[in-house]
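Reagents: none. Just compute today. IMP-specific 5'-nucleotidase 1.
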Amino acid sequence: MVSRYRVEYQLKSHRKDELIEWIKGLLAVPFVLHSAADDKNNRELVRKRYAETFKAVEELVNEQVEVREQVPAEDFLHHRQRTRLAQLVPSVGAFFTRLPLEDAFALEDHKRAISARVMVAPSFNDIRHILNTAQILELRQYNNAKLVTFDGDVTLYEDGGSLTEHSKVVPFLLDLLRQGVYVGIVTAAGYDEAQKYMERLFGFMSALENDESISDEFKENMAVLGGESNYLFRYNAKLRKLVAIPTHEWIRSPMREWSESDMTETLDLAESLLRDFRTTLNLPEESTIIRKPRAVGIVPGNRWNPETKRTIRVKMDREQLEEMVLTLQRHIENFAPARRIQFSCFDGGSDVWCDIGGKDLGVAALQHYFSPDNPIKPSQTLHIGDQFAPMGSANDFKARMSGSTVWISSPQETVEVLRCLAQGFDHYK
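Predicted 3D structure written out:
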């Protein structure tokens, strides 16, 4: 009998990344044909077939990069459709750098023994790691990362957590700044005051203040862009804290042209839908709707447990969260005021939010704000986050439109990515 989880997962196309699923399909053929016998010759044959597959995909990616480099940006979408990769995977987005996938497979296979498996085919996570490794290899080869941006929850710290002084990621963030790389935290957390972000990042803030090996100029290469693309705060070395940057100093088109009424009406509709969900989906009565200037969301509440005599967090079911975010997306994208702006509906793992803007706009704003005369290019940008899969419910997905990306699943993976970016892959061998 097929498990309930596997049946449900296969039905939920919004959870899948079509490029990764397509590569999985390509690798399934050599796995089925050549991995039956567990002997050295067969393992070598499987490794060779896998490597050939990744080499072929690498060439398809390179073709699309060449097209992007040869045509004006406004014409790329039209020309992209004629590339072989776009014909095979219609939903695939733009690639801003080439990806050495064959070399990345060799490294990941050495580490994970992917080709040695005879019962478990190459998985979603295997391919995700290979794509990540290829992106880091390319950036390292050309020393090309000028701006590295991060999601917050599940990327820099655990969900709902903070960046403490003991966080293993902190030394790597400091090292990026020490090298003159711009560091941005582009998060959905929508606070309009710096203190809230200082509290979430207190370990990093303290380490940055006390690190005498980083010049004040380089320390000020760190910024937080909150609420997807709504509030910008930059580190001020003299004041030793984050300072709010006036909106007119960094906001860009198309955000500059959005009307207040369109944004308000969009959030009004989202709030109305969320209130309806409390009844129609039988959500816990403790769940709370929170309205902010540029966002509205529903979060789990707390309940007193008389048996343990402790306050516990009341969770909403995974199915309830997915139903809310997909329904929000469908209704709002057909709402006239919302079509004149941009918005993001996403499931944060325990809550659901609708934000004005998106991380593509947030990353692009930093590219221009940090270097207004010569904006940082998407090929010089790396965004690290955990929510890339479902287009309608993961707010890192849009960052793919503004720069290269790495898809992680935990703060520990973020540390590993930054270690490889800084030191290479020698520890793999």
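The longest strand covers residues 231-236.
Action item: order primers for follow-up constructs.
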